[in-house]
Design goal:
Layout (H helix, E strand, L loop, with lengths): L1 E4 L5 H12 L9 H6 L4 E6 L2 E12 L2 E9 L8 H15 L4 E6 L2 H6 L3 E3 L9 H5 L10 E6 L4
Bound molecules: coenzyme A.
Length: 153
């Protein structure tokens, strides 16, 4: 298994992974058009030429980026792949000179295990809520905001 930056040819599989879990209310659905526009943000885990997991890093503001659209295919969960993808995205944030990474998640337990701590959603920049406003569950979606400091400034 290796983690690499995504290619345009991965979009179909990323779409499948995200929307499969979105249908169960575990994360927000993403249209294909948005995935093409944002493909540079994505990393994927590949095993035997098959993409089995994905995640994206979106820069939000000075010193702050978001881990989003994190999914591991059902049959490969619980094997350390999700944490490896997040680690890859954190290293990328560090390379960009970003000191803090956050996530909005229905799975706070996972993020806590890998070093994130719960923060008040109101402490995140307003810009972060742009996507939330489009969501049918807004404003009571039940997602938890979690943050991790990855480098001192
Ligand atoms: C949440 C998800 C990305 C985690 O990926 P994963 O590969 O299954 O997780 P890992 O195997 O890397 O787990 C890392 C650690 O987190 C823990 N963990 C995983 N999911 C957890 C959960 N829901 N609650 C608490 N701890 C969890 C694991 O036990 C492991 O701990 P350990 O290192 O002490 O053994 C994956 O289960 C998934 O895709 N779920 C469906 C989609 C989803 O909910 N995405 C939301 C993320 S925003």
């Amino acid at each position: 298994m290796r983690i690499r930056q995504a290619k345009v040819s991965d979009v179909g599989r990323i779409h499948e992974l995200i929307n499969e879990h979105a249908a169960q209310g575990k994360l927000l659905p993403r249209p294909l058009s948005e995935l093409y526009e944002k493909i540079q943000m994505f990393a994927v885990a590949e095993e035997k030429d098959r993409v089995i997991a994905c995640g994206a890093l979106q820069v939000s503001w000075e010193d702050l980026a978001e881990v989003r659209s994190l999914v591991v295919s059902k049959e490969r969960q619980g094997k350390g792949i999700g944490s490896k993808i997040v680690r890859h995205l954190e290293l990328q944030a560090k390379r960009l000179g970003i000191g803090r990474v956050f996530a909005l998640s229905f799975r706070p337990g996972f993020f806590k295990t890998i070093g994130y701590r719960v923060v008040k959603r109101e402490t995140l920049p307003h810009k972060v809520w742009r996507d939330c406003v489009r969501c049918p569950l807004f404003p009571d979606c039940g997602e938890t905001a979690l943050m991790k400091r990855i480098a001192g400034r």
